[in-house]
Amino acid sequence: MMRPGTEAELAEILRSARAPLAVRGGGTRGVAPAGAVLETGGLSGVKLYEPGALTLVVGAGTPLAEVEALLAEKGQRLAFEPMDHRVLLGGEGEPTIGGVVAANVSGPRRVQVGACRDHLLGVRFVDGSGEVISNGGRVMKNVTGYDLVKLMAGSWGTLGVLSEVSLKVLARPQAEATLVRRGQGAAEAVADLCRAMGTPYDVSGAAWLEEGAELRLRVEGLAGSVAYRAQALGAALGGGLELVEGAESAALWREVRDVAPFAGTAGAVWRISVKPTEAPGLLEALAPHKAGAMLDWSGGLVWLLATGGAQAIRAEVDKLGGHATLVRGAGDATVPMFHPRPAPIARLEEGLRKRFDPRGILNPGLMEGA
Amino acid sequence: MQMPEPDASVLARKPAVVAALRKVLPAGAVIDDPAETRAYECDALTAYRCPPLCAVLPASTEEVAAVLKICHRMGVPVVPRGAGTSLAGGALPTADSVILGVARMTQVLETDYANRFIRVQTGRTNLSVSGAVEAEGFFYAPDPSSQLACAIAGNIAMNSGGAHCLKYGVTTNNLLGVTMVTMEGEVVELGGAHLDAAGLDLMGLVCGSEGQLGVVTEATLRILAKPEGARPVLIGYDSLEVAGQCVSDIIEAGVLPVAIEFMDRPCIRATDAFSGAGYPDCEALLIVEVEGSEAEIAEQLEIITGIARKHDPVELRESGSAEESARIWLGRKSAFGAMGQINDYICLDGTIPVSSLPEVLRRMGDLSRDFGLDVANVFHAGDGNMHPLILFNANQEGQLALAEGLGAEILKLCVEVGGCLTGEHGVGIEKRDLMEHQYRPADLEAQMRVKDVFDPQWLLNPAKVFPLSVSAARREGGLAPHVA
């Protein structure tokens, strides 16, 4: 295993590499490409934190827990609410901020504030030839040149190894509350979730758990505002919702964020992106393979616990124009993790990989797929 | 600002190019009469002009694909054009290029309120996207100052921002999907009404690529429910430092205003004289706007005015009515018009870390004195996006070059303090030759590699973004030196 302590060491390792490398942050996201492990944990530490500018610059190998603790001290947080994959996948590793970025990991609040990629202001990385590349910066508005920042978010280490990331952080709100309603099926619940997202009440979480048929809606902000919006939102949905506040509310959303209902289960876990209103129909179509379901992003994110049916799942999702990622496999190595892309797009992706990693040594094969 | 010499072989083939384009487009969609192509010789950076070989106005994705196939086959450069409002020269033609305008592509293709998106042809103006959904209580968030005129195509090309992006983000944060035609004429769908990419985030890469990777013909945009209400507060200080500190304190306090606008004394005086907004004569003026219900607005403003008072303002004006709100915004909204009345100006948009605001304003003042040109500042302070207006007289020999020189120094200063050359206008030709101040050769090489993948012959808007000397081998050879 290789564990560079500086960006220069990382560059040297990549320049002199002669065989495939498995790039790893904390190793908690459930991928293990072939090759010698290249771990980024040594590239850690806070480079700059300016709470008044909502900006944080850190080494990519910095543990996520350290980042979150630092921000909490100043009453701030990563607003995109990254999932902790250990709950779903088990494992002992320590998630890193670089891993979060490389996998573009975003949680329930994505529906309100955007994904990890929307909060990523800048990156430094070393490409497959060992060249250090910097893009973006530490300011919130930046259209200087191409946005390689977005390209690197969610590229899973296949275009380069992140050495430093710069993030927009946001204030932790004074208060939060969750409205809960039980007993609605998926179709009814998604209609309500979508209605809620169309109100001016700034909903920051919109989920439905099949277990208990439980709808959850979250509002956050100043205390008076949260009380007002929770009430108004409840009324807009016809009333009869239970109000959960503070730490209890937060616990409900950790569960959604980490897909806790599927923890310790057997079977494959799929993460499916579709238009929200298409989620109920998709669950119905996939009923023969479905062992459990949870909807987030008002239905736009379908978490599916499945027994087999990989081909059928991807075929159904193709009909809807979305995509399905296999987050937890069930032992069938022939099913690719990422949804196959149409040929013209696959060609563009392949072209980018060839130029950023001409020797094909970075997590080879991980994101291929046409 | 240099532009490359036009390709004589393309100029010589003009009749053949025009004839080929006429074959695939309806009558009137190919413009080659020199009197008419003049309308396309520049964008809002009017100091630079060049008539194109011809201009085409396709009405559909299919027509755009047909045009690009021809230009690709014949080796003719293509300059995509939205509404031509670029301040950076993003749509400036060369004599050997075809202007591909999307002005005839203005349709709304789909609105879906349950899933909160609208799909439009990209020639549609920014404001009319909001206009199409406002009856249902929705709006499209990015709001560049030119929103009445500017097209979504240009917004995507430049990743445009606006006054309200502190809360709502810029174009890339509100873009869900695009239909794009590659230079080869192939139609690809990137993203869609669902969230996130199946593979690499190619849509994120295309947004802000200044029309150099493909021509975006249709866009799926996130729409949001309109807030119940909004209200500004006006805060005046007699020190730039104190005003900057107030901005920082408001942000750190955890209230997230939708906008924090900042004006300095030259700008305050000019706009007040122009608009009669009744602004105090002070060093720095902040307009902070918050949104929500009446009670929520009051709750946020209480925190904001509390912070403002701690810094001992010379003016603190809360709005009690829609008229008062409009009056507070009046001067700010007419700032560019006011400046245009008294002078010619160059408007820059470098971004800096908010913490560097006082230092940058002070040093900008020094530069202004050194160059003997006035600089007025009006900008989005919450996100550090400056808008220095350099005032000069275009009729006086040498003044434009002097103003450009001052602009370059100001932008270098933005980079030096940890910021960037452009926050929302784009690089175009205006900041092209400054790119090496922000990026090392390897950083620029990495960006050019992306263009090599999407447009191997470098035919799309080729003379923009990258310094001409840096992109020369690719533009002239058609392929990157190290790529076989």
TrEMBL record, chain A:
<dbReference type="InterPro" id="IPR016169">
    <property type="entry name" value="FAD-bd_PCMH_sub2"/>
</dbReference>
<dbReference type="GO" id="GO:0071949">
    <property type="term" value="F:FAD binding"/>
</dbReference>
<keyword id="KW-0274">FAD</keyword>
<dbReference type="InterPro" id="IPR006094">
    <property type="entry name" value="Oxid_FAD_bind_N"/>
</dbReference>
<protein>
    <submittedName>
        <fullName>Glycolate oxidase FAD binding subunit</fullName>
    </submittedName>
</protein>
<keyword id="KW-0285">Flavoprotein</keyword>
<dbReference type="Pfam" id="PF01565">
    <property type="entry name" value="FAD_binding_4"/>
</dbReference>
<dbReference type="GO" id="GO:0003824">
    <property type="term" value="F:catalytic activity"/>
</dbReference>
<dbReference type="InterPro" id="IPR036318">
    <property type="entry name" value="FAD-bd_PCMH-like_sf"/>
</dbReference>
<dbReference type="InterPro" id="IPR016164">
    <property type="entry name" value="FAD-linked_Oxase-like_C"/>
</dbReference>
<dbReference type="InterPro" id="IPR016166">
    <property type="entry name" value="FAD-bd_PCMH"/>
</dbReference>
<feature type="domain" description="FAD-binding PCMH-type">
    <location>
        <begin position="1"/>
        <end position="172"/>
    </location>
</feature>
TrEMBL record, chain B:
<dbReference type="InterPro" id="IPR016166">
    <property type="entry name" value="FAD-bd_PCMH"/>
</dbReference>
<dbReference type="InterPro" id="IPR051914">
    <property type="entry name" value="FAD-linked_OxidoTrans_Type4"/>
</dbReference>
<dbReference type="InterPro" id="IPR016169">
    <property type="entry name" value="FAD-bd_PCMH_sub2"/>
</dbReference>
<dbReference type="InterPro" id="IPR016164">
    <property type="entry name" value="FAD-linked_Oxase-like_C"/>
</dbReference>
<dbReference type="InterPro" id="IPR036318">
    <property type="entry name" value="FAD-bd_PCMH-like_sf"/>
</dbReference>
<keyword id="KW-0285">Flavoprotein</keyword>
<dbReference type="InterPro" id="IPR006094">
    <property type="entry name" value="Oxid_FAD_bind_N"/>
</dbReference>
<keyword id="KW-0560">Oxidoreductase</keyword>
<keyword id="KW-0274">FAD</keyword>
<dbReference type="Pfam" id="PF02913">
    <property type="entry name" value="FAD-oxidase_C"/>
</dbReference>
<protein>
    <submittedName>
        <fullName>FAD-binding oxidoreductase</fullName>
    </submittedName>
</protein>
<dbReference type="Pfam" id="PF01565">
    <property type="entry name" value="FAD_binding_4"/>
</dbReference>
<feature type="domain" description="FAD-binding PCMH-type">
    <location>
        <begin position="48"/>
        <end position="226"/>
    </location>
</feature>
<dbReference type="InterPro" id="IPR004113">
    <property type="entry name" value="FAD-bd_oxidored_4_C"/>
</dbReference>
<dbReference type="InterPro" id="IPR016171">
    <property type="entry name" value="Vanillyl_alc_oxidase_C-sub2"/>
</dbReference>
<dbReference type="GO" id="GO:0016491">
    <property type="term" value="F:oxidoreductase activity"/>
</dbReference>
<dbReference type="GO" id="GO:0071949">
    <property type="term" value="F:FAD binding"/>
</dbReference>
